[in-house]
Every structure is written in structure tokens, then in C-alpha cells.
Amino acid sequence: MLLCCMLWSLSGIVSRQLEQAASFEAAFWRSLVAAIAVGAWLALRRGSGLIRDLRQLGTAGLFSCLMWATMLTAFMIALLMTTVAKAMVVMAIEPMLTALLSRLVLGERIAARTWVAIVVAGVGLVWMVSDALGGDERYPHSAWGVLIASAVPLASACNLVVMKHSQARVDLMPALLVGASISALVTLPFARPFLATNTDLAWLGFLGVFQIALPGLLFIGAARYLSAAETGLLILLEVVFAPLWVWLGAGEPPTRATLLGGGLILAAMLANEWLASHGRPKPPRVAG
Predict the structure, then answer these.
(1) What whole-number distance in Å separates Cα of residue 75 and Cα of residue 207?
(2) Distance from chain centroid for Cα 230
(3) Do the beta carbons of residue 207 and residue 14 sit within 8 Å?
């Protein structure tokens, strides 16, 4: 999960390297490459069984497909309409949404340490939001970007809860393939005329493979071993590191409130995981 978050956090810095590709075109190429990469991987591993797996997705699988499509489409569009820091601030509400949904839908018990971490992270979020919605002449449609970005944590929280609820009965890895394909089809009409340069296509291809396909497959596997609330909290690493990479590599500095609030979020996440690791019983020693 940590590797997933580090790969996801590259989206902002890479998107700032684009020369001509606009929001919908960037979302189209990224999703298309991701669909091809995930499809190739699953076909290699499963062969003709992939067709059977796609047919057996069921209601939970189809819902997951729609959530993946929503996340992939909204996230890329939002990144090109507002600053990375503002988009990430909105995504920081995901742990709160995930914990609430997992409690209501799954009846999943949330550890006290996780609730405390969520509250502390919420304080960090409020701190960051204090100046995140201010105007910015570089991004005249920043408010719309923030609004579009809000679809990402909601869809992600719903997707996490669905995966935890159905992972024993439904193979959700093909859902990423279908979700990326839906995203590409939905954005295609709005992506034309294509203006992306060869450099843009190279960067978007990189995102499709290393920022969607690879971390997406790892994420689905890793989520089986963590509670929905813990998974949502770990995802906050992306929220902290994505603005940092853009600051260092693209000259888009976060505000003081973003830095301090992000630090508080990171501290809450690290404390929660440290307490969790020290609270788990050690495996018994085997004599012999």
C-alpha cells in the first residue's frame, strides 16, 4: 500500500510536464494506456479465463467498475484545473468517508486509535482548507477543479467498502480494466481535437502504466489485508507527497497552511500504524 501511494503521488509532477494536452485529452490517453496495460497483464496471467472473470463480475464488480471510472476521470481533470495542493486537500477527506461507510455498511469495528488519527487528520485538513479555496490567476477555473476533485474521495471510499464486502466472492481485478476502459470511452468525445505532443503522450503513457495500472493492481491485493479505515488512512500519503513533488520539481509551492496541515495528517497516519504494529500479538515460536 505504501508503494501504491508513492506511485499515485507522481501524478501531479508528471501532469505539470504536459505541453499541449488539455484535461479531457490527458484523462483519455492516461485511461486508455492503463486499460491496455491492465488488460495485457490479466490476459498474460489468466489467458482465456479473463473472459470468464469479466462475465462473472456481478453487481459488486460493476459498481466497482463505475467507481474506478469516476476516480480516473475526475482526478486527472481536476489536476489540470487547479493546483495539486488544492486537489489533494479535497482527497484528504477519504479516511473519514471510508470509516463512516465501513461502519454503516460493513459493521466494521473502528479501533479507537484509528478514530483519533482520523480526527487529527481532520484538523490538518481544516488547516489546509483555510486557504485552499482562494483565487489563483494561474488556474481561473480552480473552483470547478476543486468541485470535480471531490468526486474522487467519495468514489474511492465507496470502492473500498465494496471491495471489503465482496472480495471473498468476487474477483475485482478485472473491474480496474473495465473502469479504465469506461473512463477512456467517456472522455474520448471531449478529448478531440487531439493536441498532445509526443512528449505529452510519453508522460501520459507513463502515468497509465505506473500511476494507474501497477498501483491499481497492487492496491486491490493489499486492501485484502487491511481494514477499510486503515486503507483509507494510508492513502493520505499521496495527499502529503504529491504537492511536495510538484513544489520541488515544478515550482508550485504549497502555502504554509498546506505544509503544516499536511504534516499533521502525516503524523496522524504514522502514529496510527505504529500503534497498530505494537498492538498486534506476536506469532508463537515453533519449537524444534
Answers:
(1) 12
(2) 14
(3) yes
